[in-house]
Amino acid sequence: MIPARGASVLSLVPGLLLALLSFWFGTLPGGATSGGSAVGCAALLWLALIGAPDWPDPLRLGRRLGIFLPLALIAAAIISWYLSPVSRAGMLGTLLLPAFLLAPAGVARCWRQPRQFQIGGDTVSLAVLVMAGWSLAEWYRLESPRAAMPLGHHNLLAGWLVFLLPVAAVGLHRPGVRRWLAAAALTIGSGAILATGSLLGMAALTLQGMLAACWWPALRLPLATATGLAALSQVPRGLRILTASDPSSQARALYLRAAWDGLAERPAWGWGPGSTPWLIARFLEPDPAVNPPSQVVGDFHSLPAQLAFELGMVGLVLGSGLWLLFIVRRWPQRGKATASPEQQACFLGLAGGALYLLGNAPVAVLALPAAAVIAIGAALAADFETVRRGSRQRLLFTLLYLLPVGALLLPKLLAQVHYDRAATNESPTHALEEIEWARSLDPAFPLYGARTAWLRGSLHGVDRESARLALQAAEAAEGIAPLWLAAGFMGLEASAGWTFQALSTARDLDPLSPLPPFLMAVSQTDHPEAALWAAQALRLEPRLSQTSILLERNDLQRRAIEALRASGFNTDPIVRLESDRRLGVPGAALGLSVDRTPALAFSLYAFRRRPWPATLVRLPLRQ
């Protein structure tokens, strides 16, 4: 038996880990740092170690399905990872999947007694109160259209609160300070969800309110009133969606279509875990009215769609079956005359989270998986079942899983440390040394090779070796247009034979950007379609007509303008540019830069790495 003091300390562990990940290391920017990656992996593995004795049925699904479904899902992820064309993208996710399945059992063991559950619920209430209060204060201070801090995105904040708000409200049925803490967390947390402007967040909150009104008649009137007001607040957004005038829903429709197209090509095993940000551009057909040029999309904005794309139908069936069976097993009235408030509240978190995940899939940001783990673990703990001791199981788990996984993760985490040092180093020479260390420790990670090539080119001039390195990075990621564009531009400067093919791939992946067809035209001026490529680029960006690289090719410029006139395009803006003296400012240039704006950082969304500003293409304007 664990002493009372030890049990109290153990009950604080999930809440402390939740706070650590949600307020610092697991946020959208914080989780992309080397410290965030290390702390996130350590927290997940620690909870898995605590829950190791509950293997092979960590989610208590039953003797047969409880063993089969988790093992089958792990096997499907391994097969999909092995067959993936971008296997490096899913290496960490595949390694940590068993730990993720065990982590809720670890939370349940920390809260396995009513007293421990009370303490754990209080820590969640405090975390929700701080999170919601922080977000509302920053929303007011920054005058933002939507509450998003400290997680960094409004949908992340809404999902985090949806999972944890019911767990935080458990204390409402207890007397004293706990009731006031739970009431404050529930009130301010609901207000924060409203301030996020997240439609799915509000839909999940409405579902939770409806279920709560059915279970607790004494609260039916206030819950029904609050739920009705929350639903009414989303009527304007719903009307915009119905009239096809909501850009967010239009973008989500494009993402779902891309997921379907990707699944159709590899229906059984998908494209591999973690492959979405590296391959989505291959199937996405951007709409100029919705998608900006050179946009890097990090996920499909729907967990079932992303699961199908990455793990195929096999993974979708197993993953969805696991989640649905767990919810059914946790139904509060199942097999009992009455259900405890803990069971009912935890079920509300699961139901709302399931609805939220239909339209969001931010699994790469650690704060949201951490919230899901806490909610799932709380649902397990609410049964207050007797658990057995498991020192032997923990020893076997450490020897057979933790040590091998730690040995595989360590070089990758050290490589990220060197990347962070390079990104924050003011000396380009020292930054190059650090990024080369990162590439040597993790050679399969495309961003390290790309950054090495870009730094070498800026410091020592572009040569064939640096251009080849940039091409290898683009081939490793395969579906990220900026990498192909940078490789093609470096290949053009180094007169490499593969330049045109790299630029053509960049154009296919990013059809809204004027740079790929423009560089294709100037690299192959004698090609029969060169004038059409240049005309396409000038239609998207007329200022390209005054770049030095095109002015040196007078015939190509003339043919491109003629092609524009033949298509009925008004060339007057281009003519006016020729007499614009502002173009003669020394150093004026067009091109493509990445990571200049943190909210749109290429490194953050495509690779979950710290933003590091860089110029990939620079085309000087006429002097």
Beta content: under 5%
Distance between the termini: 80 Å
CATH superfamily of the domain at 439-620: Tetratricopeptide repeat domain
What is the rounded Rg? 27 Å
Low-confidence stretches: none
Tell me the overall shape. Answer: globular
Largest sheet: 2 strands, antiparallel
Molecular structure report:
The protein is globular and about 80 Å long. Helix 3 (65-83) packs antiparallel against helix 4 and helix 6 (154-168) packs antiparallel against helix 14 (341-357). With 623 residues, it is mostly helical. The protein has a two-stranded antiparallel sheet. The protein is built from 27 helices and 2 strands. The chain is 67% helix and 2% strand. The chain has a domain at 439-620: Tetratricopeptide repeat domain (Serine Threonine Protein Phosphatase 5, Tetratricopeptide repeat), CATH 1.25.40.10.
Short description:
By secondary structure, the protein is mainly alpha-helical.
Secondary structure layout plus pairing:
Blueprint: H1 4-25, H2 34-51, H3 65-83, H4 91-110, H5 114-142, H6 154-168, H7 177-196, H8 199-215, H9 220-233, H10 235-242, H11 247-265, H12 276-279, H13 303-329, H14 341-357, H15 367-381, H16 391-424, H17 428-441, H18 446-460, H19 464-477, H20 481-494, H21 499-509, H22 515-523, H23 530-540, H24 548-551, H25 554-566, H26 572-578, E1 589-594, H27 602-607, E2 614-620
Antiparallel strand pairs: 1-2
Helix pairs in contact: 1-2, 1-5, 1-15, 2-4, 2-16, 3-4, 3-13, 4-15, 5-6, 5-7, 6-7, 6-8, 6-14, 6-15, 8-9, 8-14, 11-13, 13-14, 14-15, 16-17, 17-18, 18-19, 19-20, 20-21, 20-22, 21-22, 22-23, 23-25
